[in-house]
Amino acid sequence: MHAIGIDIGGTKIAGAVVDELGAIVRSERVPTPGDPALLEDAVVEMIRSLSAGEPTAAVGVAAAGFIDAAQSIVYYAPNIRWRNEPFREKLEARVGTTVVVDNDANAAGWAEFRFGAGRLVSDMVMLTIGTGVGGAIVAGDRLFRGGFGAGAELGHMRLVPNGIACGCGQHGCLEQYGSGRALLRMAGEIADAGGIGQALARTRDEHGALDGRRVGNLIAAEDPGATAALRQLGHWLGEASASLAAVLDPQRFVFGGGVAVAGDLLLDPIREAFLEHLPARGYHPEPDFVIAELVNDAGVVGAADLARVWVAEHA
């Protein structure tokens, strides 16, 4: 039976009816309300619209933040300013069907594991490289959430002692070295240095600032300054991946998010740094490094399938 997946982002809410094979049957998108008090109404309206005339097994909702998936309680969601929000309880009372709430990076990782770049392996790690760094871990065909439901916050691994301050309150987190925001900072530093950064500096001067699209265009054109920034980013991601491999021993690393469209230009420095920092190199089996396949649909597809799995396991 079909399930509904809802992905709540900072600027938009995406929803879809998803079949058992992960294919989207029907989809909708609306802007995320500026007032968090209106968010519940927007999600309910989308669920009702998607379920009209469409029998569905359950509804899965994905959002950024610390979420206890077992109880579907949102402990903290910064984008929508929620704390200790019993979202499943509220939605089920209004839509009359089973609702499961999970972290958006978990949903995206699960979608790739089931239907995308992570299929055919039992153990994988996904890193979503966007404004920040999201993480998902699948171990033994199961999504790993940890004892309190907040596991796999890989963007907040300590990578550089006493490093750059992070919004989480710590310093040196992976998110400050391996995210889209970090890429822009590195590109700006290369622009300031001159030399290979001339095109970056010229772009910044013409437009007032560097942004992801402009730096991405320069990377696609293989501009030496922009690709140097990407290589720096890839190095940090590869170093972090080596540490993760020492702990988790995954068969595959999957990289998603906007920066991952760079493909091998990103994966090559990741692989190089991974091998440089891998413990017991030459004796430790080396995992695959691949780019995510589901792109913008991963959140809704994963949320829907997690809801379907929950219903099957609790039948």
UniProtKB/TrEMBL annotation:
The keyword Plastid does not apply. The gene is glkA. Pfam families: ROK. One of its GO terms (cellular component) is cytoplasm. It is an enzyme of class 2 (transferase). Belongs to the ROK (NagC/XylR) family. The keyword Transcription does not apply. GO terms for molecular function: ATP binding; glucokinase activity. Keywords: ATP-binding, Kinase, Nucleotide-binding, Transferase. It comes from the Bacteria. This is Glucokinase. Its EC number is 2.7.1.2. InterPro entries: ATPase_NBD, ROK, ROK_cs, ROK_glcA. GO terms for biological process: glycolytic process. It comes from Agromyces bauzanensis.
